[in-house]
């Protein structure tokens, strides 16, 4: 097999978040409209590896994915050993804005999945002027707890349990290789990080009562959800779409992790959305 180098460039960004110094790892590829990608709970930016290797996308978009603090190659802040990690809506929103500003992104498109799909709704409500479009993958206004989170803090089992919990969210039609790579990312997370993300996803980040405040005329919102998902079901996304006044896209044969579990199929749904966003750009 001939060695081939990916076009992806990885770097570290040192910045302040919530008054604390952070070292954030991010990867990027391509040029053009900035596309800031937000990973799922308990995982990291590797979920968007296929997009960064897609020449049709990177010819027109600068695809960027960062590991949230505590995740992937990003370090937790100093003193992390004395605290319990819990993600909140305010911290998440401020993090996305801070990274965007630090990278000098001019009104990027933000695309997030799962917790990322939830936070794009918060961004649409709070800061529509900061984005040219928002894409929510597996976006729901809330989710009811459906398993015991306490297992996710045990250092001896959290990796296997995290992968087991999300394994049922992958579509049965997903290619074997991509399915297991998606689960591998979950097996590598730090103890309690997946659980801390789910604090936002299952409790604090509930946005149902505020969906009516989203004005899609200020910033277009696109919602794409896989049909095989019992965490954010198609019905959940349809409810959000009806509340904010957009038409959702339900992706056949896709699960909770479309960009990583089946990239070839996902791009068929994503490309028309990106072309629509690109068409809205003023002529040079």
Descriptors:
Rossmann fold, 10 helices, 284 residues, alpha/beta
How would you characterize this protein structure?
This protein has 284 residues and is α/β, with parallel strands linked by helices. The chain has one domain: Rossmann fold. The chain is 35% helix and 18% strand. It has helices at 49-52, 55-58, 89-102, 115-126, 158-167, 176-187, 193-204, 234-244, 258-261, 263-279, and strands at 9-17, 20-29, 33-38, 61-66, 109-113, 133-137, 221-226, 249-251. The chain has an eight-stranded mixed sheet with strand order 1-2-4-3-5-6-7-8, sandwiched between helices. A hairpin with a 2-residue loop joins β1 and β2. α5 (158-167) runs antiparallel to α6 (176-187). The longest helix has 17 residues, at 263-279. The chain is globular and about 50 Å long. It starts with 8 loop residues before the first strand and ends in a 5-residue tail after the last helix.
Q: Which stretches of 5+ consecutive residues score pLDDT under 50? A: none
Mean pLDDT across the residues is 93
Question: Helix fraction?
Answer: 25-40%
Question: CATH architecture, please?
Answer: 3-Layer(aba) Sandwich
**CA-to-CA gap between the ends?**
43 Å
Give the helix/strand class: alpha/beta
Number of distinct beta strands: 8
Element-by-element helix/strand order: EEEHHEHEHEHHHEHEHH
CATH superfamily: Alpha/Beta hydrolase fold, catalytic domain
Overall geometric form: globular
CATH topology: Rossmann fold
Into which percentage range does the β-strand content fall?
A: 15-25%
Number of helix segments? 10
User: What Rg do the Cα atoms give?
Assistant: 18 Å
Return the CATH class. Answer: Alpha Beta
Number of domains: 1
């Amino acid at each position: 097999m001939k060695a081939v180098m990916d076009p992806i460039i990885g770097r570290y960004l040192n910045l302040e978040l919530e008054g604390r110094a952070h070292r954030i790892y991010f990867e990027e590829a391509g040029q053009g409209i900035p596309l800031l990608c937000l990973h799922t709970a308990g995982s990291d930016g590797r979920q968007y590896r296929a997009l960064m290797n897609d020449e049709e996308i990177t010819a027109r978009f600068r695809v960027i994915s960062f590991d949230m603090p505590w995740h992937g190659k990003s370090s937790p802040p100093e003193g992390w050993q004395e605290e319990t990690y819990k993600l909140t809506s305010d911290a998440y929103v401020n993090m996305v804005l801070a990274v965007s500003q630090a990278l000098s992104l001019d009104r990027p498109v933000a695309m997030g999945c799962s917790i990322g799909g939830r936070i794009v709704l918060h961004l649409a409500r709070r800061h529509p002027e900061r984005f040219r479009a928002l894409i929510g993958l597996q976006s729901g206004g809330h989710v009811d707890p459906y398993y015991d989170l306490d297992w996710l803090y045990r250092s001896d089992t959290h990796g296997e349990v995290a992968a087991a919990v999300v394994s049922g969210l992958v579509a049965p039609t997903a290619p074997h290789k991509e399915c297991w790579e998606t689960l591998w990312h979950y097996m590598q997370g730090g103890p309690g990080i997946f659980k801390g993300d789910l604090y936002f996803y299952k409790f604090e980040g509930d946005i149902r009562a505020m969906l009516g405040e989203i004005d899609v005329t200020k910033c277009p919102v696109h919602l794409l959800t896989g049909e095989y998902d019992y965490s954010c079901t198609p019905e959940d996304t349809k409810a959000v779409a009806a509340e904010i006044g957009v038409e959702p896209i339900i992706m056949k044969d896709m699960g909770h992790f479309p960009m990583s579990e089946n990239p070839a199929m996902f791009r068929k749904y994503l490309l028309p959305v990106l072309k629509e966003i690109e068409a809205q750009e003023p002529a040079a």
